[in-house]
């Protein structure tokens, strides 16, 4: 180990060797060594939110006279660089880390503290690692992991939902609605229990898909309100210890003004510290979205099955070869991908629910896991939906001949006879047509029951 590759830092547990070029410090280095678990770190959106909090806290503490202007401005500048992504490679702590996210918070504090120290070099500071701008005393002033971590999660979740997920859902809803209008003239056989049912318009089927997405969009939108609560100033357990009396309200207002979003203080600070209600609520809505997307994509797979031995009432745009052994085979690849993403999100919902149960007394120590699963769910769901629209929904075509053939051969057309001759006789006619492999019209003619009224009743016009 070359001495010029590392620097010695001292923390409350002793000496730690930190890479000489690193902007993080001893506590981040300890976490890197302690948690070599997944090689996954919290995402860019979370790091951005941490930078927003640190910048806003420094500005607030400066304006309240708690932080020297020179130090505060250096912290703000360093934090802005974090927000822009300049130091993402310095955020090294694994997702599966010490409870509550202390290591993640210190990673941000150390990177910003070292960078701020570097920015003050013209003002008689020491080298990186000397922390003229101290990670705890200055960068973390009036803060704790326990209030900043869940607040960063809420900020990141709100930004991702509003900028990615909700626009993607609107695009999907519109694409399905457009297909509904396009396909409305096309009649086909409905199906219940995967067996023949009365006729339906293909456009009606797609209108159901579109309306379902619209409903889920409304539920996703409703999850934003609890996410707008950020408990900055609550500090360790909600008692606002070591903060200026005006700090909590002021720092939240700084963030709200900056992002032009209605972030607010929690209605009860202690509840905010104890529980991850908003994340659990949001994840529940994402799970419901996943359930509905599985239904829709599974239906599209069934409707496009074949193309020679399945339903093949619709065709999907081909995106890639489907088999390494069967030449020319094309699979519903995009729909399968979306199904996989939805399975992951449903699993994530269980992880967050289980982590939510782990709240004890004043905090929930499973916050890093909750942050990872919620933000990853929003990310993969947003990307999957955008891909679904662009590479599948927009290119769906209907096969009117297949739709008509199936509809006209369906024995469920017998349903139209119920008001004329009753359920029992209609059932007998349908069963006889099935057994003798005849059309309903043939059986009715043989039974002497085919009148103009009856003939109209067993056509699609009489059943739509």
TrEMBL record:
Keywords: Lyase. The keyword Nucleotide-binding does not apply. One of its GO terms (biological process) is aspartate metabolic process. It comes from the Bacteria. Residues 18-347 form the Fumarate lyase N-terminal domain. The keyword Lyase applies. GO terms for cellular component: cytosol. GO terms for molecular function: aspartate ammonia-lyase activity. Its EC number is 4.3.1.1. Residues 413-453 form the Fumarase C C-terminal domain. InterPro entries: Aspartate_Ammonia-Lyase (IPR051546), Fumarase/histidase_N (IPR024083), Fumarase_C_C (IPR018951), Fumarate_lyase_CS (IPR020557), Fumarate_lyase_fam (IPR000362), Fumarate_lyase_N (IPR022761), L-Aspartase-like (IPR008948). PANTHER family: ASPARTATE AMMONIA-LYASE (PTHR42696:SF2). This is Aspartate ammonia-lyase. It comes from Salipaludibacillus neizhouensis.
């Amino acid at each position: 180990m070359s001495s010029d590759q590392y620097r010695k830092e001292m923390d409350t547990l002793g000496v730690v060797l930190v890479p000489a070029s690193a902007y993080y410090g001893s506590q981040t280095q300890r976490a890197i060594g302690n948690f070599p678990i997944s090689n996954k770190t919290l995402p860019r959106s979370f790091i951005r939110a941490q930078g927003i909090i640190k910048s806003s806290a420094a500005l607030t503490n400066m304006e309240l006279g708690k932080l020297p202007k020179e130090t505060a401005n250096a912290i703000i500048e360093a934090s802005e660089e974090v927000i822009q992504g300049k130091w993402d490679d310095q955020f090294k702590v694994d997702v599966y880390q010490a409870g509550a996210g202390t290591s993640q918070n210190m990673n941000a504090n150390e990177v910003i503290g070292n960078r701020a120290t570097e920015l003050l070099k013209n003002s008689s500071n020491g080298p990186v690692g000397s922390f003229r701008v101290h990670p705890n005393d200055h960068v973390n002033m009036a803060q704790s992991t326990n209030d900043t971590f869940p607040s960063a999660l809420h900020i990141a979740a709100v930004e991702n939902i509003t900028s990615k997920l909700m626009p993607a859902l609107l695009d999907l809803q519109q694409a399905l609605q457009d297909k509904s209008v396009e396909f409305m003239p096309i009649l086909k056989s409905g199906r219940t229990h995967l067996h023949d049912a009365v006729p339906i318009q293909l456009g009606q089927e797609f209108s159901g898909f579109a309306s379902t997405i619209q409903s889920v969009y409304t539920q996703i939108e409703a999850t934003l309100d609890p996410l707008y609560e950020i408990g900055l100033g609550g500090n360790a357990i909600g008692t606002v210890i070591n903060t200026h009396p005006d700090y909590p309200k002021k720092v939240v207002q700084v963030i709200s003004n900056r992002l032009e979003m209605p972030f607010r203080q929690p209605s009860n600070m202690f509840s905010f510290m104890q529980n991850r209600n908003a994340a659990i609520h949001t994840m529940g809505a994402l799970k419901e979205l996943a359930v509905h997307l599985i239904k829709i994509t599974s239906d599209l797979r069934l409707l496009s099955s074949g193309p020679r031995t399945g339903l093949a009432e619709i065709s999907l745009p081909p995106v890639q070869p489907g088999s390494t052994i069967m030449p020319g085979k094309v699979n519903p690849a995009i729909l399968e991908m979306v199904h996989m993403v939805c399975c992951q999100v449903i699993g994530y919902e269980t992880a967050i629910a289980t982590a939510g149960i782990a709240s004890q007394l004043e905090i929930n120590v499973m916050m890093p896991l909750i942050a990872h699963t919620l933000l990853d769910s929003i990310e993969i769901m947003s990307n999957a939906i955008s891909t679904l629209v662009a590479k599948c929904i927009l290119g769906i075509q209907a096969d009117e001949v297949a739709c008509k053939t199936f509809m006209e051969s369906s024995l469920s057309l017998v349903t139209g006879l119920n008001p004329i001759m009753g359920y029992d006789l209609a059932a007998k006619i349908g069963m006889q047509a099935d057994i003798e492999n005849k059309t309903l019209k043939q059986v009715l003619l043989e039974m002497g029951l085919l009148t103009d009224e009856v003939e109209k009743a067993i056509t699609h016009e009489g059943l739509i």
